[in-house]
């Protein structure tokens, strides 16, 4: 038997749009959902220090949310990375271009991937082939609220119970890679904050990462649907670098 969590509308509206009826409303919701879940993951994994987050309430949950840190140096760095990522992802979702966004934790020592958090996007759009996808038949905000609460609970439980802590975050780089729906995305499209990985001089060896065959552990952390969009969040880690507790 599933339990229903009461959500105060004032708490919800601080994180998500009040209505999710139209395609535009739904795109804004999915963008906010990306921000909230990435905030939750990076806070729980201690990838950024506490002053990078504010705390919001949602039912019985305390939800960390990215905020601008107090240090001017950290503000500048965070603005040019995380907040720029969020802006670019929002643009790509709005246009229906974003297919996959992957948040990677990469070792500075050998460019090996410690963890990957994959955000898969599907669109209820005639221009895209989503034959195997299902979407909500109604626009019930209550339904969507319960999906969000369940997903955040699953993320918290998985990190607390199954993952070993990241001991020294200074030993890792954190980056976001995005892939597009090629049938509808203009050939040279890049949203704010993103460039083609083949065209930049990066400290990350993208060629090694992208061409290495990864045998990985996999866990679905969230699956949320509206009438217009679907987002699936998957945790993966290469088995040789596994941070999953035995």
Question: In brief, what are we looking at here?
Answer:
The chain has 246 residues and is α+β, with helices and mostly antiparallel strands. It is built from 6 helices and 7 strands.
Q: How would you describe what is shown here?
A:
This protein is an alpha+beta fold and 246 residues long. It has helices at 9-13, 23-44, 72-80, 82-95, 141-162, 206-211, and strands at residues 53-58, 61-66, 98-107, 113-123, 172-180, 216-225, 229-238. A 5-stranded antiparallel β-sheet has the order 5-3-4-7-6. It has a two-stranded antiparallel ribbon with strand order 1-2. The protein is built from 6 helices and 7 strands, in the order H-H-E-E-H-H-E-E-H-E-H-E-E. A hairpin with a 3-residue loop joins strand 6 and strand 7 (229-238). The model has no long low-confidence stretch (mean pLDDT 85). The radius of gyration is 18 Å and the shape is globular.
Percent range of helical residues = 25-40%
The SSE order reads HHEEHHEEHEHEE
Poorly predicted tracts of residues: none
Mean pLDDT over the full residue set: 85
Strand percentage? 25-35%
Cα end-to-end separation: 29 Å
Helix-strand category: alpha+beta
What composes the largest sheet? Answer: 5 strands, antiparallel
* Count of DSSP strands: 7
Overall geometry comes to globular
Q: What's the tally of helices?
A: 6
Radius of gyration: 18 Å
- Spatial strand sequence of the major β-sheet: 5-3-4-7-6
